[in-house]
Design a protein that fits this description.
Elements lengths: L6 H25 L6 H24 L11 H14 L6 H18 L1
Helix pairs in contact: 1-2, 3-4
Protein name: Tetrapyrrole biosynthesis glutamyl-tRNA reductase dimerisation domain-containing protein
Pfam families: GlutR_dimer
GO molecular function: glutamyl-tRNA reductase activity; NADP binding
Length: 111
């Protein structure tokens, strides 16, 4: 099984956090006005993007469902449902769950 079925949750979570990052970054840059050089602005943007990626790394790892992940299907599904619920993501988790279960069953049959 690959991470394809969890992609909508990953995309929606990433988009939500990116929107928050940009909003807060712009608010910060407005407060300090144009008093900072372009290079410093770029460094601040890079810092905020790096922080976002670091924060998202853990949740994304818990949504992985490929050969390198030894988590059971039930745990991956719980993680996906939890993220959808906690962040009010617009992901149809029930359809994704059915796809994940079908793919896992197919993988077992092929083994």
């Amino acid at each position: 099984m690959d991470s394809f079925e969890t992609v909508p949750t990953i995309k929606n979570l990433r988009a939500l956090v990116e929107t928050i990052r940009i909003t807060e970054l712009e608010r910060c840059l407005l407060k300090i006005k144009h008093d900072i050089p372009k290079k410093t602005r770029r460094a601040i943007k890079d810092l905020s993007r790096g922080m976002m990626n670091k924060v998202l790394h853990g949740p994304m790892e818990h949504l992985r469902c490929d050969e390198s992940n030894s988590r059971p299907l039930s745990e991956i599904l719980k993680n996906m449902h939890a993220l959808n619920r906690m962040f009010s993501l617009e992901t149809d988790a029930s359809i994704l769950e059915q796809k994940i279960r079908a793919k896992m069953e197919q993988s077992r049959k092929e083994s």
